[in-house]
Amino acid sequence: MGFFSALREDVATARAHDPAARGNTEVFLAYSGLHAVWGHRLAHALWRRGIRLPARLLSQFTRFLTGIDIHPGATIGRRLFIDHGMGVVIGETAVLGDDVMLYHGVTLGGKSRHGFHRGQKRHPTLGDGVTVGAGAKVLGDVTIGAWSTIGANAVVTKDAPPRSLLLGIPATVRPIDAGTTDAARGVHD
Questions:
Q1: d(CA 10, CA 28)
Q2: Cα 167 from Cα 154, distance rounded (Å)
Q3: Fewest C-beta in 10 Å: which of 38, 77, 100, 117?
């Protein structure tokens, strides 16, 4: 996908997810979640080429501007939407599929530095279409299956199959009922 096609897709994704979006120009200029994703794309490209210090500096500058901390080593799919975004943290070995949605205050982090070695996967993997509610924490090398929903403030430390609903501290896993709405799942901010 070309550079301008990706920008248009990102703006369209934000407009599709946010009913408050009033126009493409507003989304392009004022949505910090988009700015964080765009900064990450550049930092990630540098990171993959082994240009590590400039990648980290760019990610820190993006964090300063947006309040969203995405490590340049994280792998992010297409159409990520970060709603409001302040306080979002995405760790170095996190992997996000396509069409993931994160609300403010989400942490995709590691559980501990002890027992881990450089290069080892220590952050979560989110499948395609996963939604993570405000304040939720997904910790460690866990995999959340595609089209799952993690409720606000849940703390997830175990894998979940596709189409799961994860709620509570620690999060319990339930299958998503086909008739359950997003509001009933408790994912809105």
A1: 9
A2: 5
A3: 117
Does this model's pTM top 0.85? My answer is yes
Residue 185 confidence class, pLDDT cut points 50, 70, 90:
very low
d(CA 80, CA 106): 14
Question: Which residues lie across from 137 on neighbouring strands?
Answer: 107, 155
Mean pLDDT of the chain: 90
The residue type at 8: R
Q: Which of 120, 123, 128, 188 is nearest to 156 (CA)?
A: 123
Q: What is the CATH number of the domain that holds 163?
A: 2.160.10.10
Print the domain residue range for 107: 3-185
The answer to whether 1 and 9 have CB atoms below 8 angstroms apart is yes
For residue 167, the one-letter residue type is: L
Give the DSSP letter string of the chain.
--HHHHHHHHHHHHHHH-TT---HHHHHHH-HHHHHHHHHHHHHHHHHTT-HHHHHHHHHHHHHHHS-EE-TT-EE-TT-EESS-TT-EE-TT-EE-TT-EE-TT-EEE-S-STT--TT---S-EE-TT-EE-TT-EEESS-EE-TT-EE-TT-EE-S-B-SSEEEETTTTEEEEPPTT--HHHHT---
Domain count, the chain: 1
Radius of gyration of the chain (CA): 16
